[in-house]
Structures are given as C-alpha cells and as structure tokens.
Amino acid sequence: MSALLLPLTGCGDKASLTLADGQQQQLSDYRGQWLVVNYFAEWCAPCLREIPLLNELQQSDGPAVLAVSFDQLSETELQSLAARYEMTMPVVMKLEGDWPFDTPNALPTTMVLDPDGKLVDSHQGELKPQDVTRWQTAYWDKTSQQP
User: Residue 113 and residue 31: Cα distance in Å, rounded?
Assistant: First the structure.
C-alpha cells in the first residue's frame, strides 16, 4: 500500500509566480527566508493604505515581501499601478502551482510563510504596524537569534 502512496505525494505542480515585468520565479527561490505574501487590488482602499507599511517591511532586514494582484491585469497595467502607488516590493501578476494557501475571498489578505515555505500565519483585513511587530517578534526576530 505505501508503494502506491509514494508516487502520489509529489503530484502537485511546483509553486511558481510571474512578476509584473514577466520574470518567472519559484517559491523555492525564497527558501531559507521568511516570506510575506499580500493580496491587493487597486479598488480596495485598505489595500492601498497598507502599501507604505509593506514597503517599509520590504526595506527592513525582515522577510521578503510579495504583493499579489487579486485582479488579472496585463504586465503594463500592473507596472503602471506599482509605479502609481510607489510599491517597492515585487508585484506579482499570478501565482501558479502548489502554494501553501488558497486565493483569499476577501481583501486585503496577507500570509506569512516560514523559511521552509510553509504557511504559519495569515491576516485578513488591513495590516497595522502592531500586526507586523507581532510577526517580527514571533517569527523572524526569533529565527535571527538562533545560533
């Protein structure tokens, strides 16, 4: 019986993403670092309000940050949107394959993935500085203190 189960465990497609500039990446490219994945849309006011906080997080010594467009926009539209809102984090056009979470039903939604690519936390609604501080204390600061 276990011989039949082994081939089935690797059936999922590798988690990949396409950035606004068309560049392809894999979730495995982020292996070894914390990753914050934020779903946003231009029509979502709370999404736009949290962009400065996500920019600040991206520029810190903390996790990598990806902003994933909830709407299906062209490369040009997405690049224009990123420039208009001064988004400094990579902006993702689409996620494909086997990610450790489903597409959210509400925006904004933010997920935290550990250095092994596993989902460890999520937040639905506008991020506040105290949310990021909580994650920093619980996750990436704790990891950086280990020998």
Answer: 10
- In CATH terms, the fold of domain 14-126 is Glutaredoxin (3.40.30)
Tell me: pLDDT of 129 over 80: yes
CA atoms of 65 and 113, how far apart (whole Å): 10
Instruction: Dump pLDDT digits (tens) for 52-109.
Output: 999 999 999 889 999 999 999 999 999 999 999 999 999 999 999 999 999 999 999 9
Those residues whose C-beta lies under 8 Å from the C-beta of residue 91, and which sit 6 or more positions away, are 19, 20, 66, 67, 68, 69, 78, 79, 81, 82
Q: What are phi and psi of 3, to 5 degrees?
A: -65, -35
CA dihedral for 39, 90, 66, 27, sign (positive or negative): positive
Average pLDDT rounded to a whole number, residues 139-144: 78
Report domain extents, the chain: 14-126
